[in-house]
Amino acid sequence: xxxxxxxxRKGAVAALAACTVFFVASQDANAGxxxxxxxxxxxxxxxxxxxxxxLGTFNPTYAPGAYGGxxxxxxxxxxxxxTGQSMGGxxxxxxxxxxxxxxxxxxxxxxxxxxxxxxxxxxANPTSPVLSGTPTFNGPVSMLFSTDLAxxxxxxxxxxxIGGTAITAFARDGTVLGSVTNxxxxxxxxxxxxxxxxxxxxxxxxxxxxSEPAGFAIDNLRFGTTEQVVVTPVPEPxxxxxxxxxxxxxxxxxxxxxxxxxxxx
Length: 265
Description:
Elements (H helix, E strand, L loop, with lengths): L2 H25 L5 E3 L10 E3 L12 E2 L1 H4 L8 E4 L6 E2 L12 E2 L16 E3 L9 E3 L8 E9 L1 E9 L5 E6 L5 E6 L4 E9 L6 E8 L8 E8 L12 H28 L1
């Protein structure tokens, strides 16, 4: 390989490396968490389907035995929002009843005065029943774990707008660890894990951060400790384009090299 070809190849590799660095950085845009897929939760992690209790159950409490959790699994409780928060009055850009503002106070706790959550049927969700906030399909859903976790995820929807709904993770002292928003319509899995894999998540909130015209609810809640979550980051849509661009540049350089070698032969 001559010097010119070597420099071209080094430039292509550097471009791809830059795309890879951007990919990693984009996953940590919300410092403290990384977006993950449903497949990141391995055997032994918790799963609540909301079929464990009857329709109309308000603010259900799930001890480990209620969802098949083993020794050391957390008790999970639900309500509208956390102590220290309040309804957002529409400041998030969406329906006022689905918007939450304020920072929770520590130690993290659910506000008994917040709008209730309840189990209900949902014809738009193939795995109904679901857990809804108040009013039906238009209120926030918050959950508190009795022990800290590394990762949490859920099926959210049915979404009719992109980027209008988010899950936000909180530490035991009320600190925001980070959040991810829906990137598509329909039923979408929203999941996150701490960026260092540590058990830091004490609570999770599902609420509006923008417009969502047809309502929202949660189903198939998954959660796990460090040993129960495999970190497999999910790239944001714009990241795919950058990665493909980097790969295309590398492929172009390789083709140029092969042509030059063939001409020299």
